[in-house]
Design brief:
The protein is mainly alpha-helical and about 140 residues long. The chain has 4 helices and no strands. The longest helix is centred in the first third of the chain and has 29 residues. The N and C termini lie far apart (about 125 Å).
Length: about 140
């Protein structure tokens, strides 16, 4: 077996593994039950595409692909940071309002420990007139 054959077999195996990983990650991005799951899947897709670009660069011998993969890695990292900041800020927008997926306002979100009824000041008892006090004392 020559080194060229080893590289060819390894690149075919890598492309096959990356293809399976790509399909599974696309499934998670589409079905993912929560927004963070989808964001992690998108970040993973960036990594898989970088792997595809690296394998194609090895097979073709064209080194410009490596520069493209590095640039994609930087952009993917910035996109992941931006999505993470979006998730953190999303809880602050609306202050207790919940919206369904169509943007329609749903019932307000409440926290039970913060829902204590406000204290009501007791009204002072009305003072009795002086004339009536004298009659009661006698």
């Amino acid at each position: 077996m020559t080194p060229d054959m080893i590289v060819d077999y390894a690149s075919v195996f890598a492309l096959l593994a990356l293809g399976i990983a790509f399909l599974l990650t696309v499934y998670r991005a589409v079905v993912g039950p929560t927004l963070p799951d989808r964001i992690i899947a998108l970040d993973m897709l960036v990594g898989i595409v970088i792997g595809f670009i690296a394998v194609i660069a090895l097979r073709s011998g064209y080194t410009l692909y490596i520069d493209i993969a590095i640039s994609l890695g930087l952009v993917g990292f910035l996109a992941t940071v931006a999505f993470a900041r979006f998730i953190l800020a999303r809880g602050k927008v609306g202050d207790g309002e919940a919206h369904d997926f169509r943007g329609i306002r749903a019932e307000p979100v409440t926290q039970p420990e913060l829902e204590k009824p406000p204290r009501q000041a007791k009204a002072p008892k009305p003072a009795k007139p002086r004339a009536s006090r004298r009659k009661e004392a006698k």
